[in-house]
Amino acid sequence: MKKLFLLFLVAILVGCAGKKYRILNSQLNGALKCQQSWVYFKLSDTLKGVILSHINAGFLCGTMASASVSLIVTDTKDTLRVLELCNVGKRFNSGDKVTICYSEKPPFNVSIPINSFYDCRYYNTYYGNVNLQ
Q: How confident is the model at residue 119 (pLDDT cuts 50, 70, 90)?
């Protein structure tokens, strides 16, 4: 009887873990699809704004490239998504005042951190350098 109970308990735990994995995998795939639909623009001027959200790049650039993602509300009240290549060191908090300078969109793939809350929302997306004011 104990063996049957343990077998039943293991089956429940494995089933629950598999469901959690499927949910996380579904959320990841949804966020990646949203990132693929982003439309990129070029900055024509240096802009000023306030950080809404910031996630550093997941790893240093090397064999693969990575970028941080900042959502910034500009002085003109536009919300922009700004990607900064290889940024693992700069840290920004919500409310920080920043300037955004032009940076060229690279011709290669870039690994971008996932933020499922913002990834599927439409924002004009730019490559740039973000610095505290």
A: confident
Task: Give the number of domains in the chain.
Answer: 1
Q: Do the Cβ atoms of 123 and 37 come closer than 8 Å?
A: no
Residue 7 backbone dihedrals phi, psi, to 5 degrees: -65, -40
Per-residue pLDDT, averaged over 110-122, amounts to 83
- List CB contacts of 13: < 8 A, sequence separation 6 or more: none
Residue 61 maps to a domain: yes
* Beta-sheet pairing, 47-55 with 40-41: unpaired
Q: What is the pTM of this model?
A: 0.77
Distance from the Cα of residue 63 to its chain's centroid: 20
The verdict on residue 47 lying in a domain is yes
Instruction: Place 20 in a pLDDT band, splitting at 50, 70 and 90.
Output: very low
78-89 as b/e: b if 16+ CB within 10 A: ebbbbbbbebee
CA distances to 47, 50, 130 from 76, in Å? 9, 11, 17
How many angstroms separate the CA atoms of 10 and 53, rounded? 41
Q: Left (φ > 0), alpha (ψ -120 to 50) or beta: where does 6 sit?
A: alpha
